[in-house]
Amino acid sequence: MQLHKLYSSLAIRNNNKIVVLVIDGLGGMSHKDYGYKTELEYANHPNLDGLACRGTTGMLTPVLPGVTPGSGPAHLGLFGLDPISFNIGRGILEALGIGLVPGPTDVLARGNFCTVDEDGAITDRRAGRIPTDICEQRLALLRDIHVPQADIELHAVRDHRFVLRLKGTDLDGDIENTDPGTVGAKPKAAKALSPRAETTASIVNAFVDQALGRLKEQSTANALVLRGFSMLPNIPTFHELYGLRSAALAIYPMYKGLARTVGMDILDCGKTVSDQLRTLESHWGSYDYFFIHYKYTDSCGEDGDFLSKVNHIETVDKCVNSLVRLDPAVLAVTGDHSTPAGLRSHSWHPVPLLLVSPTCRRDGSTAFTETVCARGALGNLESKYLMGLLLGHALRLQKFGA
Amino acid sequence: MQLHKLYSSLAIRNNNKIVVLVIDGLGGMSHKDYGYKTELEYANHPNLDGLACRGTTGMLTPVLPGVTPGSGPAHLGLFGLDPISFNIGRGILEALGIGLVPGPTDVLARGNFCTVDEDGAITDRRAGRIPTDICEQRLALLRDIHVPQADIELHAVRDHRFVLRLKGTDLDGDIENTDPGTVGAKPKAAKALSPRAETTASIVNAFVDQALGRLKEQSTANALVLRGFSMLPNIPTFHELYGLRSAALAIYPMYKGLARTVGMDILDCGKTVSDQLRTLESHWGSYDYFFIHYKYTDSCGEDGDFLSKVNHIETVDKCVNSLVRLDPAVLAVTGDHSTPAGLRSHSWHPVPLLLVSPTCRRDGSTAFTETVCARGALGNLESKYLMGLLLGHALRLQKFGA
Which of A146, A331, B54, B221 is 20 to 30 A from A41, comparing alpha carbons? Predict the structure, then answer.
């Protein structure tokens, strides 16, 4: 039985509230410039440490040991879904990132403008990273292209990147990338990887043919490639699965989108973590489960900015007591994945987890750091088990078997 | 490959003896009235601590994180069987609990007497929890009911509860509960959930029709509902799987019954843990594997009686050295699940595990508590892996692969 179905089969309703604070990219790596500490070890966070003292800790492995997750699988894991079974395609994720709300029958793809020579061979896969306004101008040339059997939408993302959205009734995303992945090659025709995607592949090719005709006069960004054709995975909602009325307090579109895929209500929550927590407080009575997403730790990690990541951890720490005052039945603080400043990217390192609840077994943790959490009583769990721990501690799972 | 089949494929025989002491409901939860200690942390158990010093420790998760097991799945896990694949139904477990020995073709169900109004709608689902002797009187009214194709047995359990046993050759337990689960509704007809259970469902309905006719003159307990229709799962024996001659030293019928499902001999072992250990000693030469079950820790947890649970842990501790003197090749001390007094019920919390063997790798554990075991070298394992650890440390598993 799939894990979420097991948990779902045991779920019962009560009034116990669950709050999950996701500090994006929380985990770090020993950094030689800072005494071989991680950002979390270097930062001063007395309130999180205090929570650790009266809770239990552990580590979450987002997917599997050594595997670095994208934001999609990392969050699906936190939401109790096996990130290997439920794959969120790049096209869908890119769309979520700019605030689109894909419909269940839409096909989404990530597009790149590229530059080709007179023979159509790619000379620059990113068209010199044209500014976003040039991307917008190129998309304007393509917006009135019509093809049978689908409506086409084009949305600029940033630089040379855009999203292609196909809206229709019989579409399928099982299509190979048209991006050959190398200079010197020509963009490929869209090719269906299964018979059910044949129609969609021909729609894509009809669009691309017309688009290339309209772009060929340009000296750069005179062609396009598409990748990550995908549809929304068929994901059950938190309410269907667990009877949870759930809400997301996220500032960035992608995380709102990810929360929407599991049926969370998206609350308008301002721009800072203080705004988020005020919003939480004002909606406290209306939901059973709150997902709070804090982005900036990840951004600083991606920038390689150790000290800024430290600062953002300290900012979260200053706010966390206002969460505690709401007295949730279960409060979990963790990340979706690690983003060590030393790597300037997501990483595979497990993520520290802190869980506080009147029903928890205190484990003697005295701080909230990777080193402490790695010895915490919850052990090292795949992220997909977090949902069971939350529901268990909230007394929202009935006994399994007689 | 299923786990028990893997272990089975590697099993070899030798004279090394394995003893597993299961302290039922052993694990606890931090209790605010006792310095946020668990029962095991609060108790004084120098002998168990001494064993920890010369052994290795870890934690067992009975099913999966957050999942609270019933006694059936909790024990199947300890016996090396995946508790999700091998499900013991409520009817079977109830029968085991009163000492019945279900045959492989029997169907068992748990019955409740209830009270219905003149229209047949339930007014009290438990018939005012009639005393057991009234339950016996009602069953006496039903004992000579005959239906084609099955023999019927009725056994009082306690209060309004009884066990229905159908004996026949072509029966199947895949039948929906007749209990509507709510007052105001009428008991439902038994409905087969698969074609192979059609005959059994009609047998049940023929019985219930006659039973209702005989009960209708009563003012209370004048109807019945049935739930948990089930058959013995097809479980291989310890001898078939591992070549182990195995014996159970359990006082309560349910645990004898669970041990019998994996082919253990049930030894008559008196009423106290001292009696159990004397029995063990006198049968020492006849078996390879001994399962000793200590019940009272769980009962006290269910009663919410923290200090009595502490006392019972201390009682076990005083006896444990007589086990050690027998010098088993492997001695494991653990629980089937946690029963924190603070919850008055089974819980999902992992269970401490202690393993002592001349072949173990001592891990520096200095006590037998949840906090120490959570940091033990065995890590946090699903209970179903215990069997492999026992066999491995007893040198009863040959090398896997070349």
Answer: A331
